[in-house]
Write a structure and sequence with these properties.
By secondary structure, the chain is mostly helical. It has a domain of 50 residues. Helices cover 25% and strands 5% of the residues. The protein contains two helices and two strands. It has a two-stranded antiparallel sheet with strand order 1-2. A hairpin with a 5-residue loop joins strand 1 and strand 2. The N and C termini lie far apart (88 Å).
């Protein structure tokens, strides 16, 4: 029996996808806030600043789902409902 060439075997490296959310400078102290719907719409369209129930004024430019809700806004909202 003649020697047959060995089959070629290729071993591919194992790829692992790891998702690490990257947050900007100072994101560790950011919160999602409650604002009036009309103000949120205006901010999205015009880039205008909004005022949260707790009094914070800012121009929204981040996904609020990534942050915990402001406790002061939550307390005020519960009193209003």
């Amino acid at each position: 029996m003649p020697d047959a060439p060995a089959p070629l075997t290729t071993i591919a490296p194992i790829e692992e996808t790891v998702t690490n959310p990257v947050t900007g400078e100072g994101d560790h102290d950011r919160f999602a806030h409650y604002v009036r719907k009309a103000d949120a719409t205006r901010a999205a369209v015009e880039g205008a600043p909004v005022r949260a129930l707790c009094g914070k004024v800012w121009v929204p430019n981040r996904d609020p789902a990534k942050y915990p809700v402001c406790q002061e806004c939550t307390k005020i909202r519960e009193r209003l409902l």
